[in-house]
Specification:
Polar amino acid transport system substrate-binding protein, 3-stranded parallel β-sheet, Solute-binding_3/MltF_N, 14 strands, ligand-gated monoatomic ion channel activity, D-Maltodextrin-Binding Protein, domain 2, disordered N terminus, 5-stranded mixed β-sheet
Length: 272
């Protein structure tokens, strides 16, 4: 009996040691994203094309934008080719977790809920939620608080921080949620919704492209930090991304891209 018990304990100990060894190997830098990228010679970046000016389709069907240009700099720094993986927003985190790509670069707001699923590199830009509304409301609606009324229908994009912000700041209004920005804005332009709540950069560009049709409340009513998301337990990849971000800020490459996409509008002629 003692010998049998001893063998059982030894077997259990062996299984535990094997499990620990497997877990340690799974978390070693050799199996991290950075080593995988270098080994395959390819950086795979996930995003959803449609978020101006971060990522969008151009007239030739390609994908351009601030995040795309940052990804190009990243791939150049790594010495590998870049592959953009265009992914629907509602499945973009699951796609990252199942290794469809190495890093999610799609204007994602850093939230506690998302941080339970993924790790974020340091914030690379700060934005806020803003309001696009029907032009006829310009004289009566001066802030988001003025829209918190049951008579107003507010359109948002499902699953975004604009969706969450509308629910928090406009609990008395009627909320309509849509799969894309274009669908939501169509409701405002068609008079079926009073306003659209979404990120300031996108809203500002949209109004600039469609002068006289809608009105932008220029002051954002939230503060949000955007970050690049990666799979958890990969500190080496996260550290590399943070060093890369610090480097492009220091050598002014970041400033050049920010000016190109957020301060100037020459790129508008490239998109539909």
């Amino acid at each position: 009996m003692k010998a049998s018990t001893s063998r059982w304990h030894q077997g259990l100990l062996s299984l535990l040691l094997l499990a620990c060894a497997w877990q340690a190997r799974a978390q070693t830098p050799a199996d991290g994203a950075l080593q995988q990228i270098r080994a395959r010679g390819e950086l795979r970046v996930g995003l959803e094309a449609g978020y101006m000016p971060f990522e969008m389709r151009d007239k030739r069907g390609g994908i351009i934008g601030f995040d795309v240009d940052m990804a190009k700099l990243m791939a150049r720094k790594l010495g590998v080719k870049l592959t953009i993986v265009n992914t629907q927003w509602d499945g973009i985190i699951p796609a990252l977790l199942t290794a469809k790509f190495d890093v999610l670069m799609s204007g994602m707001t850093i939230t506690e809920e998302r941080a339970q699923q993924v790790d974020f590199a340091d914030p690379y830009i700060v934005i806020g939620q803003s309001v696009i509304m029907q032009a006829k409301l310009a004289d009566t609606v001066k802030s988001v608080d003025d829209l918190n009324d049951p008579r107003y229908v507010i359109a948002t994009k499902l699953g975004t921080t604009g969706d969450l912000a509308a629910a928090e700041y406009l609990p008395k209004a009627q909320l309509m949620k849509f799969e894309t920005e274009a669908e939501a804005l169509l409701q405002v332009r068609g008079g079926r919704a009073a306003a659209f709540v979404y990120d300031l950069p996108y809203n500002a560009v949209y109004v600039a492209r469609n002068p006289g049709q809608l009105v932008l409340l220029p002051k954002p009513f939230t503060r949000e930090e955007l970050g690049w998301a990666i799979r958890k337990n990969d500190p080496e990849w996260r550290a590399w991304l943070n060093e890369f971000l610090a480097g492009v800020r220091q050598d002014k490459a970041y400033d050049a891209l920010y000016g190109k996409w957020f301060e100037r509008t020459a790129w508008l002629k490239l998109v539909n």
